[in-house]
Input
Amino acid sequence: MKRRPVILIAPSTASQGEEFSDASISLSNRYTDAVIAAGGLPQIFPATTARWVISQAVQRCDGVLLTGGDDIDPKLYAVDLAPELAKTLGPLEPDRDRWEKDLIDDAFEQNKPLFAICRGHQMLNVALGGTLVVDIAMQVTGALNHRRMDRKAEPVHEVEIAPDSLLARVTGRQTLGVNSTHHQAIGTLAEPLRVVAQSADGVIEAVELKAPERLPFLLSVQFHPERLIDSDTLFLQLFSSFVAASQRQRQRNL
Ligand code: MN
Output
């Protein structure tokens, strides 16, 4: 049987788990299901900041997937938040911030394909030196409603895709209807990144590397393709192209 590429998935954290009320990990099966449907073998990253675990986990995988979750600690990208903005923050996951920053560093260091979704998309920008819009509704004039928790698995707004992007090549589209369950977004773009999709209000919905040769694959999206794969196979294509890049990278490393 053909060995499938191993996709390391960074999960969310929960303060209380199911078995005991301990700090635990939490991951929607939609992520693992999407990776499996794309032909990858999911491996869930453990909740630890131990540096050696992070670097060996990245070493032994063929691609890294960053998922959605709670807000990133603003200390990582902003000096001081006005109190009315600070109030919009949900619960923070400071340890998760740390290991995801290290996972991103190691993915670059070890040349691993990287796919970032929602919080992962924001974390990628922060890890590379960018900032976030802390709350779209408060900070973006004329913003669409990007927090459609009532329609998590349906397209609720359109994005316009840069024609010369990986996202355009993979989807074959110039516009795409996407779901939207976020209240934050990329603010100042990190220097190594370029915007490849935006909604009509200017919110950054996807980024890639300015110098794509820096990684075998990098795609970062604000929406949740894992929740849309049943409604349109085009969203599964995002996972398939990531898993295929991970497989090619594995073969190169053999
Ligand atoms: Mn959105």
About this structure: The helical segments are 29-37, 51-59, 83-86, 94-109, 119-127, 136-139, 166-171, 233-253.
